[in-house]
Amino acid sequence: MSTYQTVAVIPARMASTRFPGKPLVPILGLPMIEHVRRRVALARSISRVVVATCDREILEVVRASGGIAVLTSPAHERCTDRVAEAAANTRADIIVNVQGDEPCVWPEMLEALLAPLVADPTLVCTNLMAPITREMDFQSPNVVKTVVNLRGDALYFSREPIPSGRKAPDAGFPKYKQLGIVAFRADFLQTFARLSPTPLEIIESVDMMRAIEHGYVVRMVPCDQQVVGVDRAEDVARAIELLRNDPLVAQYRR
Fold first, then answer.
1. Which of 38, 98, 185, 197 is the most exposed place for a label (fewest CB within 10 A)?
2. Please, what are the domains in the chain?
3. How confident is the model at residue 51 (pLDDT cuts 50, 70, 90)?
């Protein structure tokens, strides 16, 4: 992994439709964006962490904490396009997009995400997924579900329940959610940003459908770590509960 220069970019904006201002919501004494940034920085294979935002409030909070933040265009409708802008002039082989609402991300997750790109030079993109353990998450439009082929490559992403719960409700078929943590080869990320938005990407409101619709392989990487994405205000309590006894918190709050 040391032969690759890997930079993590964390997109964040204040104008979230479901939870305005969430990057700066306090969690155990730190703004959420700082939990994400500091946890990502603990990954051995990440050489630099950059927060990409269109909001000066976020920029100032990150810089005041000693982090790197850059201003990006407010016109981006998809987070991956914001990441691509921030990474355009960055010297890196791999860019990791870590959503700013994933305060429970573990460094080991990032190592697992990067491993297939190192092992297979033909891959251009990897994406983390985790089992869905709650029926309410399977039904929630805030949780992006995915199904994969026998090689583990993404077939589809949707905010609807997939696969069909009606046809196999008790069959024990695994249900997975996308975690919003994606690794791109740096050149492919810029290619992705130049691709036209696609019909299913727009319908599902999921960036990665663009790659699939244009014929690219997105390798899904399963992980078992327990995480909580903060999509709505009520998710903050779940994140606090999970982080309260998390040993990493003591390391990066010093």
1. 197
2. 6-252 (3.90.550.10)
3. very high
